[in-house]
Design brief:
single chain, alpha+beta, 2 domains, three-stranded antiparallel sheet, two-stranded antiparallel ribbon, 5 helices, 13% strand, globular
Length: 155
Amino acid sequence: MRSKIWTAMVGTLMLGGLVLSTPRAYAKCDASGADAADIAAARAAVALNCDCAGAANHGQYVKCAGEQARTTLVNQSCRGAVVKCAAKSTCGKPNFVTCCRTNSKGVTKCSTKSSGNSCKPQKGGTACVGTFSSCCDACTASGCASSPSGAFLDR
């Protein structure tokens, strides 16, 4: 009986040690904190290696972004953050634009639209066509973001 209890205790301690020693690659993604630089590096790799303007279609671009994230990220749990930015982009969608719409309560949301003419404000709100290919970069809290050098623009 005593050896069964001892075996269970040792097993529990070993499992606890395994959990505590789990590599950072499996840690929860902290996109706005500790993992922000990792995500930025992966998104830079996407901008460099995935052809936004020349992608055969949107799905191919998102697939390329996923592959770049897989090979670049230190923390693999942040892969979704990188892929989400590619999925919410105009890449592989000819003539599409990012559209920043701010409602009457001051809440800004981004979406992709088939043309600049489709980017219309809600009643009592404003809208602007973004200069960035991804909604992750196109809008600020109050409208469209300006495009500083080094940003993730269409190539």
